[in-house]
Amino acid sequence: LSIAAHGHADALSFFLDIDGLSYIADVGTYTYHSEPEWRAYFKGTLAHNTIRVDEQDQASNAGPCLWVDHYQPELALATENEEKAVVKGSHNGYSQLGVTHTRTYEFDKKTGAIAITDKIESDGQHVYEIPFHLHPEIQVEQGQDRAFILSHPLGRNVHLILDEYLEPRLIKGAEEPILGWYSPSFLQKEPTTTIYSRLEKAGSFQLTTFIKPQN
What is the CATH number of the domain that holds 181? Predict the structure, then answer.
């Protein structure tokens, strides 16, 4: 996490591009010094494809261009063979809450499928928010249970399947609270769809997400 203006609280986040097209997106920066509520959102944890705990960022926001109480990320595993690639990491940004988040990405080279495993270690009860921010060009269709079809006008369909613990909903262009926005360039923003889940749960648990591109 950088203390510079571009630093975002985005530990363990990801974005997904397929064939050069954006599906699950980095939503951008939008502003640095103006519109403080929007600045706080775009640099905060909820604007990234990771997990937020108890409505708190992974670090403490000390101003539009400053973080304090920096988290420490840790790379636990990075391995690759002919069949798959696996990366596993964690961070201590929620240690003050007694929560540790560990995420594993496993990429199947043959099928192109990605499995994301989130391990939450905690003794207490907390609120967890799990967003997936889509690029504005992506159309989303919700199928049965927690399955979604992401379609790009110039690309392949992608199946996104969320864990059974979650009850996801689609949010686009919300302002109170801010959620479902994309900034293509400085001082420009537009609504986009966020697949958003909020889970209140006690103790340790695990979430598994599957991303399956179609040929």
Answer: 2.70.98.70
Token reading at 211: 């991303």
Identity (one letter) of the amino acid at 32? Y
Query: Can you tell me the mean pLDDT for 160-189?
Result: 94
Residue 20 lies in a domain: yes
The mean pLDDT of 17-25, rounded to a whole number, is 97
User: Is residue 134 situated within a structural domain?
Assistant: yes
| pTM score of the predicted model | 0.91
Give the HSE-up count for residue 95: Cα atoms under 13 Å, Cβ half-sphere.
Answer: 9
CA–CA dist 71, 68 (Å, integer):
9
Query: What single letter denotes the amino acid at residue 53?
Result: V
Kindly state the DSSP code that residue 135 receives in the 8-state scheme. Answer: P
Number of domains in the chain: 1
Q: Is the peptide bond before 177 cis (omega within 30 degrees of 0)?
A: yes
Of 61, 25, 14, 7, the closest CA to residue 134 belongs to 25
